[in-house]
Design a protein that fits this description.
six-stranded mixed β-sheet; alpha/beta; about 20% strand; 11 strands; Methyltransferase, Cobalt-precorrin-4 Transmethylase, Domain 2; about 270 residues
Length: about 270
């Protein structure tokens, strides 16, 4: 009898943000296929399991998706509990559709265990809500990343029509993103933030305006980063981090380190 494949969200990185269900599954797992960004502190929970890295990171060698699909199905024919551990939430920019389609086609049971996605961790890191009553009523999660042979992304239209935008996997294309948005009519003075390593002790925050997004992105240290964009980031929750800056103005590019001790502050 086949086992079950569990698509599990590892969350944004901090081990204590893993859900209880995810932790219990890792403890029971016979085999774990994990993404490159999943920290060792989470993997140690799978103490009895065989662990296989199948991560995908931009610009680096990665495991082909069709090979991951097959390995999941093959593992389910040998093991009772197969965990596919994905950074963030498995159903958001995690290629879950390809894996679930393959498992359905081969009649392999599966379950999905949600995780905290990067936009929520970044929002908590800043202490600034993604929405605001009467001002920011819509949020979009987008990525400009397009794989070979895939149709063109509609990220630009989505960002233009949302009050708040969370742009995944875009820090390396910050210049192109900034120029495309401004050319499409987004004000160059729109506030932006880049949060790197959200939820981790080495998290960093970069703030400024859309016109300077590329400059802000260059200050990152290479960790996974998320771009947040919208008028929500023009208020005192961010502005008061620069001594002497008035809320009516907005600083340009600056990056500051942050830690877990400050991540829950709400000024």
């Amino acid at each position: 009898m086949n086992g079950t494949v569990y698509l599990v969200g590892a969350g944004p990185g901090a081990p204590d943000l893993l859900t209880l269900r995810a932790a219990r599954l890792l403890e029971r797992a016979d085999i774990v296929f994990y993404d490159a960004l999943v920290p060792q502190e989470i993997l140690v929970l799978a103490s009895k399991a065989e662990k296989i890295e199948v991560g995908k990171r931009s610009g680096r060698h990665s495991t082909a998706q069709h090979f991951i699909n097959k390995r999941l199905a093959d593992a389910a024919r040998k093991h009772r509990v197969v965990v596919r551990l994905k950074g963030g939430d498995p159903m958001l920019f995690g290629r879950a559709h390809e894996e679930l389609s393959y498992l359905r086609e081969h009649q392999i049971r599966f379950e999905i265990v949600p995780g905290i996605t990067a936009a929520l961790a970044a929002s908590a890191e800043l202490g600034v809500a993604l929405t605001r009553r009467g001002a920011a009523r819509s949020v979009t999660f987008v990525t400009p990343r397009v794989g070979k042979g895939e149709r063109e992304s509609s990220w630009l239209r989505a960002v233009l029509h949302a009050d708040t935008a969370a742009i995944y996997m875009g820090a390396g294309e910050a210049g192109e993103i900034s120029r495309a948005l401004i050319a499409a009519g987004k004000p160059a003075s729109t506030p932006v933030a880049i949060i790197e390593n959200a939820s981790l002790p080495n998290a960093r925050r970069g703030f400024g305006i859309l016109a300077h997004l590329e400059e802000i992105a260059k200050k990152s240290t290479g960790g996974p980063a998320l771009i947040l964009l919208g008028e929500n980031y023009r208020d005192s929750a961010i502005i008061d981090q620069w001594p002497g800056v008035q809320p009516s103005s907005l600083p340009t590019a600056r990056a500051t380190p942050t830690g877990r001790a400050r991540s829950g502050s709400s000024r």
